[in-house]
Structures are given as C-alpha cells and as structure tokens.
Design a protein that fits this description.
- The protein has 475 residues and is α/β, with parallel strands linked by helices.
- The chain has two domains: 120 residues, no CATH class; 337 residues, Metallo-dependent phosphatases (Purple Acid Phosphatase, chain A, domain 2, 4-Layer Sandwich), CATH 3.60.21.10.
- Helix content is 43%, strand content 22%.
- It contains 16 helices and 21 strands.
- The strands form five sheets. Strands 2, 3, 6, 7, 16, 17, 18 and 19 form an eight-stranded mixed sheet that branches. A seven-stranded mixed sheet has the order 1-9-10-12-13-15-14. Strands 4-5 form a two-stranded parallel ribbon.
- The chain is elongated and about 145 Å long.
- The termini are far apart.
Length: 475
C-alpha cells in the first residue's frame, strides 16, 4: 500500500510539473507571438517612416532643384552655353547643403546668387567650372587658364595693378639696380610688402626677356632683359603680366618666344600676347576666395607698326586698332567670370590728357562686358572716368621705368562676389630710377588732387579711395 501511495504521489508531482512546463511554453509562445507582432508593427512603422522621409527628401530636392534652375537661368549671361542639368548636379553632389540651407531658402521664396556663394563659398561661375571638371587638379586648371588662390580677406579678392615696367640692360632702371644690389633700394619696402601680400599683383611687362635676337631695325627704343632678371619679377610678387604692348617684340620673334618660355618657367601667366592668335586672345582667370576674376589685354599704341599682331601660326600681340576683335574677346570672357578686367595699351605718350578716342573705345569695352578698363602706354598718369558706374583708368603711367620724376602708383581693387567693393590708389613717385611710396599725408593729398583734377567725375578721399562724383555728372 505504501509503495502504491508513493508511486501515486510521484505521478502527481510529474503531472503537476508537466502542466507547469506546458503553461510556461504557452506563456513563452504567447510572449514570442506578442514580440513578433510588436516587431512587425515597428517594422511597418519604420518602413512607413522611411517612405515618408524619402518622400519628404524627394520633395525637398525637387523644390531646391527648381529654385536652383531659376537662379541659374536668370544669372546666365546671354550667349553663354548652358550646362545640362546644373541644378541636378548640385542636388546630387551636395546633399547636406540641398536639404539644409538651400532648402530653407527655397522654402521661403527663392535661391539667389548671394545664397549660392554663402552656402558653397564659391560663385555660380566657379561651381560651373567645377561641374565641367576644369578644377579637378592643377594640370587641368592650367589647361583652362585658371589659377586658384586663397585670399587674405574673407569673401573678397584684392588685386593690385601697376603700370609699365621696363627692364633693359642698356640703361634705365637695371643699371641702378646693379649699382645698389637690392630691389628694396629701388622700390619702397612698403610697396614691395603690399605687392607680395596682395592676392594678385598684375603689371604691364614692357620688354622682352632673352639672350637672342637683334633690335628691330629703325626702332628708336628697344628693351631687352637678361633671363637672370626673372628673379626680380618674383621679388616684386608678380602674379600676372600683360604682353599687349609695343616693346615685347623689340628683339624679334625668338626673343618674344623666349619671353613667354621664361614666364612659363617662373609660373607667371600672361595675357595679350602669344605664340599664335589663339593664345594671344585667351583670357586668364584667377579664382580667389571662390570669386572668379578674368583678365584680357590688347594694344593699339603704335603709330609706326613694329610689333606684329599674333597670327594663326606666328607669335605677336592681340591688336585693337580695329576694336571689333577685342570687343568679342571681352564679350566671351565676361560670360565666364564674375568680374572682368580689360587692359588696353593706347593713347598719346607723355601727356596727362586722354583723348576722345580713348573715351569712345573705353566705353565700347565696358559695353562689351568689361567691369573695368585699365590703360597704359602714355608713361604718365591720366584721369579716371566712370561710365555708367564702371571705371575707365586711362593710364597707370610708368611704375618702374626710368629716371624721370613723375607721379605713379598702384590701383587697388577689392572685388566681392557681386562686383567691385572698393577701388583705391596707392600714391607713389618715380624718381631717379626708383619708385617711392609717398608716406606723408600732405604729399599723398597733393598727389590725389593731381589725379582728381585729371578726372572728369571721380573723387579721391584722403585714404586714396576712388568713388564717382555724381555732382559732376549733373554739371
């Protein structure tokens, strides 16, 4: 009896244990089912949310793309070839900007060129070059005559422009340099500091660099520098030169070809001259702080033609006696940049009075698309005139040329994404084979008054800042 009772109790305990195990399995299955349902619900919600996010993202992209396309079309200068789906390229390659600041602008109204510059740190023209692949490396940039720099001031580019520079081994400034042995004893240290620290220093290179060739027969003045003088250009901080003048060919074709080769070796680009017409016509562009600034140059300075025009297969300069070709060069270059500086070698020598022809041609160049016209060749300063709000600098004179005593200076341009922010003049005096910075306020004011008196509608304040005199327009 006791054994049966023990077996019964053991069976009862096993039964209860199995029941408990069954209940636990049912609970686990139920919990698993609930968890599965919850997971499926969460997955469904996540899929829905991702779908909604994709829809919102797509809607944002569409809105931004449409706004970008409108901005692009309105900013595109007439005749400039439109790049396919520029807006789509921006949206695809800049997702953070697209769904961030660009969307914020598009949502409240429109995207402007100013918005593009502040979001990307680059103007529309620079982004177009980037899309086209022109900026992928230094070799490609150089192929397209584009040079990229970081400027010293945020959101603007500073350009310093000098007048005529002449290096000749037979006299002039090089003899004095060889005597003193230091560039700082020829050009004031203050000027050298400015020229080396500015974003770009640009001048007229009015001589050839070579040890080949003979002076042109019958020409009164011919200028040639030994190749060793190239170091002086670097010591001056030179970043770009114009060859569009009446002395770069003084020792013939070989000497001009050498000049371009030496400039290339030193990494100094040039405009206004070339091995052929295509090269002489091509602009040079500098991207500084995301702002694309263009440079072109031409000459119509000679009464007796010694300097040849560049032709299809021969070197020379870009001529502008008939201004039609240069106007076209300007028009084409203006479509590719934010600000275009057109240099012209023109006018009568040794007179401070510019001619009506210079005014007519300067107006043509502005109408063709130049933002400023800067002249040289007269060897002395001439006036400054604003034409429809844009300046013509009739002559920058000689910067460092000979032993004559005359006013000269540096034109300083501060260019922002929207155009010219400020224009000023650094007052100097060329004297006894040197170029000196005028430090004293009284001497500066005398020089500013001199230049202002040559200018029909420009006023120069005590800091050298040049602005348009609207009262003169009315008078």
């Amino acid at each position: 009896m006791e054994d049966r009772e023990k077996r019964r109790k053991r069976r009862e305990r096993l039964r209860i244990k199995r029941q408990r195990q069954v209940r636990q399995r049912k609970i686990m299955l139920a919990e698993a089912a609930v968890l599965f349902v919850l997971l499926m619900i969460c997955f469904g919600i996540s899929v829905h949310q991702r779908g909604e996010e994709r829809k919102k993202s797509a809607a944002k992209k569409t809105l931004v793309k449409e706004a970008l396309q409108e901005c692009y079309k309105s900013a595109l200068k007439a005749g400039k070839k439109e790049q396919a789906d520029f807006a789509g390229w921006i949206v695809e390659n800049y997702p953070k900007e697209t769904e961030g600041p660009l969307y914020d602008k598009a949502e409240v109204g429109q995207i402007t060129e100013e918005d593009i510059y502040h979001v990307f740190g680059e103007t529309l023209h620079v982004l177009l070059d980037r899309k086209a692949g022109y900026l992928k490396d230094d070799k490609t940039k150089k192929k397209h005559q584009i040079y990229e720099r970081t400027g010293k001031a945020e959101d603007e580019a500073e350009i310093l422009i000098a007048g005529d520079l002449c290096f000749a081994e037979e006299g002039f400034v090089l003899d004095y340099y060889d005597e003193v042995g230091e560039i700082s004893k020829c050009i004031s240290p203050e000027l050298l500091d400015m020229m080396n620290k500015t974003d770009l220093f640009y001048l007229n290179h009015e001589y050839c660099v070579s040890d080949r060739g003979e002076p042109l027969n019958g020409k009164l003045y011919t200028f040639r520098a030994d190749p060793k003088r190239m170091k002086l250009l670097n010591e001056m901080g030179t970043g770009l030169v114009s060859l569009a003048n009446n002395h770069v060919y003084d020792f013939g074709e070989d000497a001009m070809l050498d000049t371009m080769d030496y400039l290339k070796e030193e990494g100094i680009p040039y405009v206004g001259g070339g091995r052929n017409k295509k090269e002489a016509k091509r602009p040079v562009y500098f991207i500084i702080n995301g702002i694309k600034i263009g440079f072109v140059a031409a000459s119509n300075a000679e009464i007796t033609l010694y300097t040849p025009a560049a032709e299809k297969d021969s070197p020379g300069i870009l001529e502008a006696y008939d201004t039609e070709e240069y106007n076209q060069v300007i028009e084409d270059a203006a479509k590719e940049c934010d600000y275009l500086i057109a240099y012209i070698h023109w006018g009568n020598e040794d007179t401070n009075q510019y001619t009506s022809t210079q005014t007519e041609q300067g107006t043509e160049f502005l109408d063709s698309g130049a933002d400023i016209v800067v002249g040289g060749h007269p060897h002395v300063l001439q006036g400054i005139e604003f034409v429809d709000g844009r300046p013509v600098i009739y002559s920058m004179g000689d910067f460092w040329f000979n032993n004559e005593t005359k006013y000269t200076g540096l034109l300083k341009l501060s260019v922002a994404y929207e155009g010219l922010k400020e224009m000023s003049f650094v007052p100097c005096l060329q004297t006894e084979y040197t170029t000196q910075y005028l430090k004293e306020a009284e001497k500066q004011r005398e020089m500013f008054d001199f230049l202002e008196n040559l200018s029909p509608n420009a006023v120069i304040d005590d800091k050298g800042v040049i602005t348009e005199n609207f009262e003169a327009e009315v008078q």
